Amino acid sequence: MTERTARPAPAAEAPHRPAPAALPTSVLQPLGRLGQWPRTFADRLTAPLPGVRALARLAREGAVRPRREGLRDVPLLPFETGPLPPAGPGTVAVTWAGHASWVVRIGGLTVLTDPVWSRRILGTPARLTPVGVRWEDLPPVDAVVISHNHFDHLDAPTLRRLPRATPVLVPAGLGRWFLRRGFTRVTELDWWEAVELGGVRFDFVPAHHWSKRTLLDTCRSLWGGWVLTDPVGHRIYFAGDTGYGHWFAEIGRRHPGIDLALLPIGAYDPRWWLRDVHTDPEEAVRAHQDLGARRMAPMHWATFVLSSEPVLEPLTRVRAAWERAGLPREDLWDLPVGGSRVLVP
Question: Which segments of 25-178 are extended strands (E)?
Fold first, then answer.
């Protein structure tokens, strides 16, 4: 489905109204920048990590996977593959490969977000749905953006498929992981920093989450989302993995005019355990509104079993929340795995 967008001219302010204060802007960094970072980013957490009591409660309740009836709808999960839409330099298009993996075509570039093409990741059952885009059907990848280092977002077997000269944009503290694996064009960014590649601007923005990959590296690297802006101002926000909180409004203030927000809606139950790090469908709709985005495309569901909600529930709840909010139905891009939408042809 193709959609043309035109940015409305800003409304003229009344002469007596004072000019608004300038918002802080992201600091532009050079490609290939590798920083000197603190030993820990634990001071960036917006909620305490679970302690021994919470872990004991989770073990006692055993609420880490859906019940049998919650898995009944696996055959109904939306999956519909098709060719990637043609994409010239002026095209903005997205294709959902599953979970948080998107093929974003913007400003003439092909960008992968948190690419996970593996059938299985550590600690979870196999994928519920196949990958929505065959690896061999991908055009040459111009850049990869990573939100954080959890295994369902940073997948070593998938990344090994990429040419080692692929530009990789990663959170602060994660660069050495890629350098050890032979990648030669790695850029680390802190929150509110940006780089430009091929005329497209990549801004790294905060998220309500955390990082951990081994027993010894909790919060040793940063976590966040990405705002991609093409040369004429079309803007896509990729949230990565996040709970709900104040950062969405701040991101919207600093990056006004977001055309499409890619927001997570799954892996939220039990709520007492996951509220601080994963938005539920209703919170995702609130985040979309806080951002001031025009459209929303749900993600982070229908792929891996990471929590205990019924597998189809995220979709039914996000549709209901969208309707309750009175938002235009055509602006909810609830794609099947493998589905594509074109923002600007």
Answer: 27-28, 92-98, 101-106, 109-113, 143-145, 168-171
